Amino acid sequence: MFLPLSQSSRDRHPQHLAEVVATSTTEFLAQCLEPDNLDFPLMPAFGSWVKSQQDENSDVIAYGVVYHATTAPIDSVHRAVALGLSLQELREQQPQIFAMLRSEIKVVLLGFSSVGNIYQHLPSQPPQIHQAVYGCEESEIENFTEELNFLRTLVQMTNAPVDELIAAVLRNVYQVRKCDRNWLVQAGRKLSILLKDDYDRLGAILGQVHPFG
What is the number of domains present in the chain? Predict the structure, then answer.
């Protein structure tokens, strides 16, 4: 399966959210794409599922979740300053500001698909720089989360608010699965093992899983 590439913002695939700008074995950094109008880029939510093709000639699609997001000036020397203006006033009086900012997301890789099969371990290579990043369809999230081995990768992370991230990912999947309580129970059991029966921590994570955003 090849993901569609579309450069024009008007013709862009509706799930085309970002572009890979840095990559490593376990994660990648992506810059969110600029909208047509004077506004900030659409930034995927914390814990949301995204995908990216390994390279333009590969059928490997890497899957991961957003664990960090930033919006900052493109110029690293000068910080943004408070102007006391509404968003509409910024559009009218300081429209250049929108071109001076960039929004970026960090994505931890949880697995990949190849020729119709899903694997919950790292791909042999991460997505290449400049590969498109797409939001996952609900059917893809459901298929990927039939198995729960990806939770081990999240539990072992050291560079993220792990418990909040796990809760956000579970909440996202729970909502996609139309509040499938049986799936949530299985996820809770898997987490209990991974957390070595730390029930206080487990309870705090599962307490954040609910049917709403």
Answer: 2
**Could you tell me whether strands 61-73 and 101-114 are parallel, antiparallel, or unpaired per DSSP bridges?**
antiparallel
C-alpha 7: how far from its chain's center?
21
Residues 192 and 128 grouped into a single domain: no
User: Tokens representing 149?
Assistant: 């081995």
What is the C-alpha separation between 127 and 61, in angstroms, rounded? Answer: 8
pLDDT at 2 over 50: no
Q: How many other β-carbons are positioned within 10 Å of the β-carbon of residue 62?
A: 26
Last residue of a domain, one of 115, 140, 165: 140
Range of the domain at 78: 1-140
What pLDDT sits at residue 5?
A: 44
Q: What is the DSSP string of 170-196?
A: HHHHHHHTTS-HHHHHHHHHHHHHHTT
Please tell me which residue, 10 or 39, carries the higher pLDDT value.
39
Query: What's the pLDDT at 213?
Result: 67
Q: 162-200 burial by CB neighbour count: b if 16+ within 10 A, else e? A: bbebbbbbbbbbbbbbeebeebbeebbebbeebbeeeee
- What are 62's two structure tokens? 């890497």
What's the pTM value of the predicted model, to 2 decimals?
0.90
Quickly count: other Cβ atoms within 10 Å of residue 208's Cβ.
13
Kindly report the backbone phi and psi dihedral angles of residue 178, in degrees, each rounded to the nearest multiple of 5, phi listed first.
55, 45
